[in-house]
């Protein structure tokens, strides 16, 4: 059976005014199975976000193609839901209306949209904040709203660009757990960009390591740890520690590939 997401010979060249062309990604071939949780790890600037944006259909490849369920990605679609930092919440809408927004755009009747948004807010633990505005929430709460808003579209793929990067350690752990809970219930396919090796190991079925300048696929690591995963238990699990170490070393090597390029 072919992969759910097929990335074939994908390259991206950016034209930078006054500085010519910059090859951000070069010849990426990779496949992601349906329902799989995949993290992208790599040195800063290696093209992780660009790759995610291309799967989202927000950025066009210079070469190659991306197929989702056998169909070429031509642009953004509700089946590929982004949770990107820059897709900020609407400050003038309440939490409830932020979550309802995508459903209303898709012409879901108001009562039905409200019902679904309420279920999602409950799922991310924000039922009591439905009437609040984003400015009245903490960063972690805003990120939960953003996740609920994306889930409202019922995407088949969640595209997450360092969604917990800016949060304190405690909030990050809570949201990682929630995300795993949601993923275990729904088994959406997740593409997750992170700088955190431990986060990648904790969450993922597989970790794709990129090297930089230009970004290339360096290694793929299968994370063979049982689920459901409990973070406190994993921290003392020898296999978990070995994965973290292996990936740290791989990242060091990927950085070296970059400086040698
Ligand atoms: N719109 C753009 N125009 C020109 N260059 C760009 C553009 N977007 C990204 N780049 C360049 O492409 C390369 C990859 O950027 P990208 O943000 O995808 O990397 P990243 O791996 O996500 O980085 P980080 O880990 O620091 O977030 C970088 O060199 C960046 O400067």
Automatic annotation (TrEMBL):
InterPro entries assigned to the protein according to its UniProt record, in alphabetical order: AAA+_ATPase, ABC_transporter-like_ATP-bd, ABC_transporter-like_CS, ABC_transporter_ATP-bind, P-loop_NTPase
Cited PROSITE patterns: ABC_TRANSPORTER_1, ABC_TRANSPORTER_2
Entry keyword annotation includes Nucleotide-binding: yes
A Pfam family hit: ABC_tran
Alphabetized Gene3D superfamilies for the sequence: P-loop containing nucleotide triphosphate hydrolases (3.40.50.300)
GO molecular function, one term: ATP hydrolysis activity
Residues covered by the ABC transporter domain: 5-237
Keyword Calcium: no
This protein's UniProt keywords: ATP-binding, Cell membrane, Membrane, Nucleotide-binding, Transport
Family from the record: Belongs to the ABC transporter superfamily.
Name the record gives this protein: ABC transporter ATP-binding protein
Organism name: Corticibacter populi
